[in-house]
Amino acid sequence: MKIDGQPYRTIFPDADGVSVQVIDQTRLPFAFELKRLGSMHDAAVAIRTMVVRGAPLIGVAAAYGLALGLAEDASDAGIERAVAFLAETRPTAINLRWALDRVAAKLRTVPISERAAFAFAEAGHIAEEDVESCHAIGMHGAKILCEIHARTGRTVNVLTHCNAGWLATVDWGTALAPIYVAHDAGVPVHVFVDETRPRNQGAALTAFELNAHGVPHTVIADNAGGHLMQHGRIDICIVGSDRTTASGDVCNKIGTYLKALAASDNRVPFYAALPFSTIDWTLDDGVAQIPIEERDGREVSHLTGRLPDGAFATIEVVSPGSPVANPAFDVTPARLVTGIITERGVATASADGLLSLYPERRAAA
Hints:
Layout: E1 2-3, E2 6-7, E3 11-13, E4 20-23, E5 34-37, H1 40-48, H2 55-70, H3 76-87, H4 94-107, H5 115-152, E6 156-160, H6 177-184, E7 189-194, H7 201-213, E8 217-220, H8 225-230, E9 236-239, E10 243-245, E11 250-253, H9 256-265, E12 270-273, E13 279-280, H10 286-289, H11 298-301, E14 302-306, E15 312-316, E16 329-332, E17 339-342, E18 345-347, H12 351-357, H13 360-364
């Protein structure tokens, strides 16, 4: 995607060939800055502090982090230590562990002296696959938006939650990819952007993306979506996912479940868009089995923003002394999900639906 006419990806090899550059998403939307990751520790900090975020991007960043770690210790024990260290950074998104396991499994037959370079190249392959997957998600999902437009003859109003655009992946995005494809094809699309407390990824990141791409949109408070649905102002909800079970349960940013409940009550179709790497085939009960990350309560009790003079300030918004809880994700049961948009097509949110797109998993089960 482009920023001021310049194409960017969220992560890419540095010119030195031994490190990577990432877009520092903690600085958006008010400042666009790149950050160099030169070590495994740098990658871990970037993931943990959400300099990079979004399940697919976290996976790619972790793969590069593993490669950077092998530059210091490429032994079998070094691989195990690096995988364990990076896997602890964010527990909910399955893409992170998937990417680490994929690279580690291939390294076992590679000579120790060649492992760092091999892992760096493999991380690049994962990044390229992510771009292809996300573009395919966009093509499949755009068909749904085109059908709505053809049926209604008017602008398609989409509700999103959190940020599942190109900033959450290497490029294109998941939930926003269908919007970009449809918009570029001339389909009139308007996006209602949930602010997504407590980190405001919708207001800060999704709005930033849509602005940059010229997609009409309106930022709304998190609690406004149900009201808009009641009044017929939402045609479809599309969200991303950090982990989806083999049975079709969808884990996504906290607040997604409430949107799905409102969508079900108002008969608004509710879709999750995600690549194959987000599906956890080992789980079938998302509510009981998916680990939910509990983040620092300060993300809820404090807000950081830009003052009229351009300076930044952090303010407290919660009554001093009140305890704060901050679960980062929730799980939307499959029964509330109309369909799952993947790089292979659109499936019903069920074991049979997903297996219809990934029949090779039947043999693996």
